[in-house]
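Rotation project, supervised by the postdoc (A.L.). Task for the rotation student: set up a whole-complex structure prediction and record inputs and outputs verbatim in this book. Inputs entered:
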Amino acid sequence: MIELPGIYNYLVVVFLMMAGFYVVIAQGNLIKKLVGLSLFQTSVFIFYISMGKISGGEAPIFVEGASLYSNPLPHVLILTAIVVGVATTAVGLAIVVRIHEAYGSVEEDEINAKDLVDDAITEEAPSVNSRESQ
Amino acid sequence: MTELQLITWILLIPVIASVGILITGKYPNLREAVSIFAGIGLFSLVAQLAAITSLENPQSLVLAEPIPGLTLSLSLEPLGLLFALVASFLWPITILYAIGYMRTHQEKNQTRFYAAFAVSIAAAMGIALSENMLTLFVFYEILTLSTYPLVTHAGNEKSRKAGRVYLGLLMGTSVGFLLLAMIWTWQLTGTLDFKHGGVFSAEADPAILGVLLVLYVIGTGKAAIMPFHRWLPAAMVAPTPVSALLHAVAVVKAGVFTILKVSVYLFGIDTIAGLAVADWLAGLAGLTILLASLIAMTKDNLKTRLAYSTISQLSYIIMGAMLGVTAGIIGGGMHIAMHAFGKITLFFCAGAIMVAAHKTKVSELDGLGRRMPFTMLAFLIGSLSIVGLPPFGGTWSKWMLIQGTMDNGIWLFTMVLLISSLLNIAYLVVIPVRAFFKPENNSNAASPTAINEAPLASLLAISIAVTGCILLFFWSEPIYQLLGGIF
Amino acid sequence: MSFMDHLPILVVIIPLLTAPLCVLLNRPILAWFVSILSALISFFIAIQLVFQVNELGTISYWLGGWEPPWGIEYRIDLLAAYVLLIVTAIASLVMLFAKKSVEKEIPENRIAYFYAAFMLAFAGLLGIVATGDAFNVFVFLEISSLSSYALISMGKDRRALNASFTYLIMGTIGATFILIGIGSLYMMTGTLNMADLAARLPEVADTRTVRAGFAFLTVGVGLKLALFPLHLWLPNAYAYAPSVVTAFLAATATKVAVYLLIRIILGVFTLDFSLQLMPLDTLLVTLGLIGIISASLVAVYQGDIKRMFAYSSVAQIGYMVLGIGLATTTGLTASILHLFNHALMKGALFIALGAIAFRIGSTSIKDFSGLGKRMPWTMAAIVAGGLSLIGIPPTVGFISKWYLVLAALELELWPIALLILVGSILAVIYIWRLVEAAYFGKPNPYQYVQEAPLSMLLPLWILVIANFYFGIQTDFSIGLASSAASELSGVGR
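Outputs recorded:
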């Protein structure tokens, strides 16, 4: 029987993940979407960190001759993943800034509506001075 | 030259010609000279190849091996020789005709026209000389693509639509069915080579063979069996020389040639004879023969009528192939040549009428025999040859086909062929007869009796084609001998 | 160790280091020059690697000299060498084309950054292919993805930004899924080395964690791959990205994702696991087929040609996935072949579209009117690429269709064979819309249009000729594909 504290972390992970995922899908605001995305990624970091932890385990570097120690590898890996996450958020925010400049909005529905207008313009009058040729 | 060199050059000459045509495009006389000389050269090469090749043991020219074990290769065999001879003989003649036609008609983009024409002929030669189904398929598709600019030559909305039907049906059937059948055959037998007696083992499941045969026959859209015939009338928007050589000879004959090859060399006539589905396909061909003839009667546009007549005639050959008897195959093979000469004559005449009298409708032709006596006489001879009356070439092929239906033993097929001959009279022979004996219905022509014939180059081409129709009656023996060599 | 021994890492490192160099040089022409140089060097390294692998078998390179499974291993087998070759070849050609196109489409002060991002994306893709370490895959995946988001957002239309943001959201979710998958596998086996994973997984294969990990990995890669229901980011991203980016990503990024899928399904997990414990074959075949038909149908109705070919890419990915799903050596050969062949055709097509965008500033079908006369070489290339896409012999498209249909028929799945060919017929329709517009429409009399410059025609026609060459002379492509396929399915058996 698995005792509750053992899987407690994973429940948190699942909760955070689903919350983040939900925010990404449900929110129309691009910034909030990015917040959700960060939450989603962070849950995975916790997942990795929990994975390496063993109850009662020591840090393998400080203690000489420890037989029960936490696995450091996932923790190191997740450092990389955190960097990736930060980079993603940065790129995402940069794009949002430019979207705001170009569309004057960060609301998904407004942007999509403007896109539809753009699409219609492209369909009707394709380029600078061409006419429907026949 | 050796056999392999000849095969190489046969394929290369039209291609070189097309490049030459593009280069000399600015000088029409030079350009047409290139076409004609290439045509004559090609025919002489094919003839030379026929002379030096021993058909029992032909050499094969391997071009490439795109799929391990499956090559693109060429070699000579009786059916292919016949097809190559017919197509290469009629090419320079059609060019001769086209010179008169295209110039009088003041068509645009003539350079593109002659260049695409030459590529089409190269593709037809490739089909004729194919040693296996893959090679045939490759050239088959090249033929479809190279004729597309010819069909849509006029570049207007009508030809654009026609091009859509043309490409849609030909490519759709070939990619959808023919390719499937090929890959299936390859998967079952591990070969696509044309072999005597077929490639399938005796234990092959007849149900699968039946499905394959159906796929092959309907997949060969160029054979225009109903319900995949619509492209042929649509293709009539092309300039008449195209209709004449490609849509009465090269393209459509490539279709029925494919079916003949498949039935003789992939299935083998004994297998065909044993398949119940072959009789049904022959029945479908019979239906096409009759329906196309009936539709032809209702068509007033001369070229469309000829197109439906072609559809009906092509199904003769399909029927011959599906009968599963020697006489059917030989009859079908002979019909490739006989119908080619007959139908090209008719198309030449239709073009001549269009150029000289500016008439495209059958109902307008009454009394035209007085103004264009030579053209109309040629038309009469062409139609009689197609009906199958002596002393014209069509007699023998029809004879053999009827013999084939009798050997097969289903009397319905014999009836179909006989009825169809009567229908031929009703929709083809009637035209010259009315032209000679009915009075002209519009008398606004300044001098109704003045002779106003097509350009000389065209007339010359017509007379060669007509001579062919007659000569083939007396010299059909070599063709018979040649095709007899299949078995 | 000699220089030659370090090739597996050099092929990745050289473009990776070129990226900061581009920023430091900060001059468009210099940035372009070092970029094309590094693309070419990678290309020659890739050729060399193909030879080495062919001769000596799989290369295992220990990063920093640490022995796997503890250290990171770079593992170049036949398939990896093959994909490296495709990616570097396309990158070199695209770089050749890029100079003028980028000058036209990207503001001058950003060109150096553009090349830097491009090189990062390039290095990332190469890294995914070269590495033998699962976590390393994730890192390289993110390197290539993040730089792709930036590249796509540089499209001059503002819709590029929205497309890029959508891609960022979906791409990040996909990458995170992959991360979860890798985590689960690590949890069960304690290793990240792919070969080691493959050896240890069978013991624990029948656990929920491994299955969940497998599902996460497949869905994650499916997102990157634009597998049918997960393809929504792709059409807009391709349609609005700068021409150079579209040409590069269309020809390589999805291919690398397909490679990754093959690696995961066959290399890490075994065929038995993927097919028997998880119903992946049914899933891939079904999704592949729906993708082929639906995306082709949507392509027929697109007004923008770039987007039309983007949908066509979704359909083509369907072919590749279908081949994997058939799970036979022939099917796998077909997929690997199509991976190569599709890179050739889409590379050619998108470069041609780039040339057209360069001259007339649009890729809307209405602007194609009369282009057959104005830009004969470019249009001829599009027709040739289109024929290859349809699968007309003697093009490469024919060869891959042949193998795919053959694979379906071997399993007696003739309805699938028929549907594959229906996809081809749909391709005829959407290609021919373009042909009709270009050759039958009247040219716009108010617009002066010239043939594309030589620096664009050259890479374009190299690819077009390759389309025909590898359709006739297939020793190389089929040889590599079939031995890679049998090597992989050998692992599975």
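Student's summary: Chain B has a mean pLDDT of 85.
Supervisor addendum: Chain B has 18 helices and two strands.
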